């Protein structure tokens, strides 16, 4: 199942949200938890320091507390808040909340102030500050530990995380919704184009409305060119069929008259048949050519298209013994339908072979914007006046030699369809030079680009 | 010389066959691609006239297959497709010549004669062998300067031997190239024909190579 552009974008945004928000949430939650812990630790430190201040060593080397800290939490049994003073392995003072239990922990020598995680008398997790006090007259350090319930920290963190999840979740959802709306608005021109195309298909309109953002406008323009091309092809087909039928009427009428006459003029009939053949070929050639709109969408490797035609011309002119040479000055691509190119080159070569004495030369010369096709023969040439006539009608010159005389006419017609220059000149080889100037195709760049920046 | 005409339009096929026969060729007809393929692979032909619009098989793909299987029989494509892109495609598929419809029937004959000649390496339509001159285009024989008349069968036999000169040709090969399919000649028909030709042109022109066949030599026979 293929996703629409909009669906793709929204899906991507959603997945990104689903990945990024939890990561953000985890980082924020972690930072908060650490902060809560730090605050708790600070309270523990303060209380431990206060307690430490109350401890004295009596002259008899016993450790005494001047007075006990007076707080409810220390009186409530198993409240979760405990303090304890140890000398060696003997507990000398403890909070009332500890009752008959004691806090046990293991320590290694090191810092005089440290954090501990331990378990209280109820099995509850505790976080504590431990102070090692060197009291001068007492040999071993006195251990003072002050502990509070971890559950306080955890509860705060949990509460925060709930709010965080809610907030981030709502943020994510809103972002996705806003994004979806943005996509919808952004793709509106595409939808408009789609509607236009649908209307074209239903015959309501014939062109896409080019009132679109710059990146889509060139797509619309190209589409309109295709539609125009289609229409011109239909028109040309229709016109050609009409012209063909019209042109055939005269020779057909003549033939009927000849057939009815007595005796039947067979020679005349043969002439009429030749004429009919010529008319059919001419119109077929015209209808078959892709023409100028074909130039916009075509990119033909001139050399690759011409080589098989050379083989064919050489194959067909074997008996005459004419040498056909080809010269290319590089690899050129022309903006022309491949079959049309083959048709003009084939006809030019065929013509040249008829007029040539011994040699025909085909050259392709590439300039910056055109590819010149030159076909030279070494025949006896034709006077300027006759050459102009050949361009005007293209049939008379060829009728002198064999063949139906259509070749040049076809070349002329295709050149006209592509609006390219076609000339007959005197050739340096001695005979005639046919010169066709073909449009060079763009060097592989696409015909339109979708630009994503503002300066298109 | 035997030609295969692969054309589905019957009047056209028969018309082409008629002019070819008049010019001294034996002709077999194949109205479908399948038949053309079968005949080409089972019989011996000196040339093929191939219509591209055959029912069943596309003429060009048929030709490509023949060439791929090293069946290099000289081929003339006959078709209404006259665009140069079509001609280029025809030659690319391996044809030796290309003729578009409508055409002058005689043109087929001239082109086939040229194809056969070229395929045998003959630069000229006039072949000399042992004092005799055979003009393949005109279908005329001269022995020591004197024109000699031959029947159609005799001409076909002699023309084939001339084109294959300096090579021994077996009776089987002669029968395949002189008689049309379905003729089923007896084994000694060729000997009878050889005998008749020898009576007209002289015994020395055609040599018998015992156990192998017959041969025409380009060198003059000993006086």
Give a verbal description of the structure.
The complex is a heterodimer of chains A (456) and B (223). Chain A has 456 residues and is of the alpha+beta class. Chain A is 52% helix and 18% strand. Chain A has helices at 5-53, 72-75, 150-186, 188-201, 214-260, 266-288, 292-297, 302-316, 338-355, 384-392, 396-400, 407-418, and strands spanning 55-57, 63-65, 82-87, 90-94, 113-119, 125-133, 142-149, 300-301, 323-328, 333-334, 359-366, 370-377, 422-426, 432-439. In chain A, the strands form 4 sheets. In chain A, strands 4-3-7-6-5 form a 5-stranded antiparallel sheet. A 5-stranded mixed sheet of chain A has the order 9-11-12-14-13. A two-stranded antiparallel sheet of chain A has the order 1-2. In chain A, helix 1 runs antiparallel to helix 3 and helix 9 (338-355) packs antiparallel against helix 12. The radius of gyration of chain A is 50 Å and the shape is rod-shaped. Mean pLDDT of chain A is 83; it is low at 394-404 and 445-456. The model of chain B has no long low-confidence stretch (mean pLDDT 88). Chain B contains 8 helices and 11 strands. Chain B is of the alpha/beta class and 223 residues long. The longest helix of chain B has 15 residues, at 105-119. The relative contact order of chain B is 0.12. Chain B has a 5-stranded parallel sheet, sandwiched between helices. A 4-stranded antiparallel sheet of chain B has the order 6-7-8-9, covered by helices on one side. Chain B has a two-stranded antiparallel ribbon with strand order 10-11. At the A-B interface, helix 6, helix 8 and helix 9 of A face helix 4 of B.
């Amino acid at each position: 199942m293929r996703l629409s552009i909009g669906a793709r974008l929204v899906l991507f945004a959603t997945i990104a949200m689903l990945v990024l928000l939890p990561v953000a949430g985890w980082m924020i939650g972690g930072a908060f938890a650490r902060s809560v812990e730090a605050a708790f630790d600070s309270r523990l430190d303060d209380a431990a320091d206060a307690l430490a201040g109350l401890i004295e060593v009596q002259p008899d080397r016993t450790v005494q507390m001047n007075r006990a800290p007076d707080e409810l939490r220390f009186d409530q049994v198993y409240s979760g808040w405990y303090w304890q003073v140890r000398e060696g392995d003997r507990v000398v003072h403890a909070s009332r909340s500890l009752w008959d239990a004691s806090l046990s922990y293991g320590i290694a020598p090191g810092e005089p102030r440290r954090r501990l995680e331990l378990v209280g008398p109820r099995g509850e997790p505790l976080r504590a500050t431990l102070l090692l006090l060197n009291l001068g007259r007492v040999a071993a350090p006195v251990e003072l530990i002050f502990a509070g319930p971890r559950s306080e920290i955890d509860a705060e963190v949990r509460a925060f995380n709930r709010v965080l999840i809610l907030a981030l979740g709502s943020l994510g959802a809103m972002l996705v919704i806003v994004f979806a709306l943005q996509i919808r608005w952004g793709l509106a021109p595409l939808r408009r184009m789609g509607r236009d195309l649908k209307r074209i298909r239903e015959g309501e309109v014939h062109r896409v409305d080019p009132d679109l953002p710059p990146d889509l406008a060139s797509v619309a323009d190209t589409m309109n060119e295709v539609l125009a091309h289609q229409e011109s092809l239909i028109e040309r087909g229709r016109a050609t069929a009409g012209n063909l039928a019209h042109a055939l009427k005269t020779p057909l009428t003549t033939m009927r008259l000849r057939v009815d006459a007595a005796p039947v003029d067979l020679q005349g009939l043969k002439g009429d048949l030749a004429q009919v053949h010529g008319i059919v070929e001419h119109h077929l050639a015209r209808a078959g050519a892709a023409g100028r709109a074909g130039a916009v969408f075509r990119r033909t490797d001139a050399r690759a298209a011409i080589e098989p035609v050379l083989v064919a011309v050489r194959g067909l002119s074997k008996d005459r013994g004419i040498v056909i040479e080809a010269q290319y000055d590089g690899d050129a691509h022309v903006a022309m339908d491949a079959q049309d190119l083959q048709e003009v080159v084939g006809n030019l070569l065929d013509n040249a072979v008829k007029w040539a004495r011994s040699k025909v030369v085909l050259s392709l010369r590439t300039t910056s914007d055109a590819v010149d096709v030159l076909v030279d023969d070494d025949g006896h040439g034709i006077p300027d006046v006759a050459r102009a006539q050949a361009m005007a009608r293209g049939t008379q010159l060829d009728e002198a030699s064999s063949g139906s005389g259509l070749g040049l006419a076809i070349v002329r017609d295709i050149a006209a369809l592509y609006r390219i220059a076609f000339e007959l000149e005197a050739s340096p080889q001695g005979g005639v030079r046919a010169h066709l100037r073909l449009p060079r195709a763009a060097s592989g760049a696409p015909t339109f680009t979708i630009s994503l920046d503002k300066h298109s | 010389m035997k030609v295969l005409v692969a054309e589905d339009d019957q009047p056209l096929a028969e018309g082409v066959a008629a002019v070819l026969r008049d010019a001294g060729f034996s002709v077999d007809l194949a109205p479908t691609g399948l038949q053309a393929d079968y005949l080409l692979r089972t019989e011996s032909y000196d040339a093929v006239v191939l219509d591209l619009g055959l029912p069943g098989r596309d003429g060009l793909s048929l030709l490509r297959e023949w060439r791929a299987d090293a069946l290099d029989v000289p081929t003339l494509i006959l078709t209404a497709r006259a665009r140069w892109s079509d001609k280029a495609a025809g030659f690319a598929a391996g044809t030796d010549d290309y003729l578009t419809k409508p055409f002058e029937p005689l043109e087929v004959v001239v082109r086939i004669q040229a194809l056969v000649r070229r395929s045998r390496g003959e630069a000229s339509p006039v072949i000399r062998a042992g004092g005799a001159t055979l003009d393949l285009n005109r279908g005329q024989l001269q022995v020591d300067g004197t024109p000699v008349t031959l029947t159609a069968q005799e001409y076909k036999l002699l023309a084939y031997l001339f084109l294959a000169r300096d090579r021994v040709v077996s009776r089987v090969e002669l029968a395949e190239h002189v008689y049309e399919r379905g003729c089923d000649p007896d084994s000694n028909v060729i000997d009878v024909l050889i005998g008749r030709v020898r009576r007209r042109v002289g015994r020395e022109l055609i040599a018998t190579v015992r156990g192998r066949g017959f041969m025409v030599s380009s060198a003059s026979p000993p006086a």
